[in-house]
User: What shape does this take?
Amino acid sequence: MLNERGQREVFCGLTGIIWLHRKMQDAFFLIIGSRTCAHLMQSAAGVMIFAEPRFGTAIIGERDLAGLADAHEELDRVASEVLACRPNIRTLFLVGSCPSEVIKLDLERAAQRLNQRWHPQVKVLNYSGSGIETTFTQGEDACLQALVPHLPLSAKAPAQLLVVGTVADVVEDQFSQLFKSMGLNNVAFFPPRRSAELPAIGPGTRFVLAQPFLSDTARALQAMGMECISAPFPLGVQGTTGWLKAIAHSFGIDEQRVESVIAAPKARALKALEAHRAALANKRIFFFPDSQLEIPLACFVHHELGMTLTEVGTPYLNRQLMAHDLARLPANTTLSEGQDVDKQLQRCQQAEPDLVVCGLGLANPLEAQGVATKWSIELVFSPIHGYEQAGDLAALFHRPLKRRQLIGQRKGELAWN
Assistant: This one.
């Protein structure tokens, strides 16, 4: 295994707001940052000028940087304007950025002050979305960690499963139905669809991660006395089956019942993978570190699509949370943690992969060299968890190769003409 601590290509942690604001429909994310932060979010989210997303940027201007304006007074004013315009908001997140952290703006104190003013109508919390030392998915980790202390505690709470990590609503509904069919009725999802309706937890609550980039959130939940169910991540047929069976085993549910419940969706998923496997088998794939999804994704493309792993890079590796997926990697897999981007680009060139999974900053240069790429951020934005999404997940890897093949055919036709 390689451990690299050189120059990195990372996307900003503010990006997590894009899926978090869609999930928590009564929350607003107020970024305290620069115009660059505002442009980043507008571009990444693809929000048109007439749309009304539940996020915005309180822009740090020249007067703030020069100390000519009271930054806390300005922040109070902007926050009040937001809440006056959006009376349905129940949680206001003050999100730190690189600029606000550089000028040492104390958003924790600001959140406490605003919370005293607006509570109980609105809960005001803060977390850091800065991209200085994090990868972009850690924005969600920081957000959920900020919510953990506010989970209601109840000594009478029934034995309950808490599914941790943002998944699309359609995926949540599918998992809920599977759990119900398995006989597991007390299931809650964190974050919930409404931030004001945080699930109550008690001595019997256990949690399972749906996303692999939630190390700090997992530690915070364990510190509250909750048990973490060790499982692979629910990507593809094998990952989803292992995830569900680990949960069932933890709650003493008979495995035959589980097999009966999953038989139909599992068969649909296997059928959906057939065409993609035929096209992707034996294709070589290289993962640059970006989202922390790389290891479970590598297991999926290798075991279920027949792809050959040339290198699997991940920004950070939590061996405890990733134990099941690490065990599923082929023994000869080159695994790298961290990044030295120049060295990794050289290894990628030597490996001659058919497909590279990487961040936006590397995709265009690699495409210019004739390498097919898949943006890792698209794998986070898209619903990819569970049986019903297995075919869609495979299609995300198939599409770049299909596009390159069509472009090659078109160039050949033009040359012939």
About this structure: The longest helix spans residues 390-416. The two ends are 50 Å apart (CA to CA).
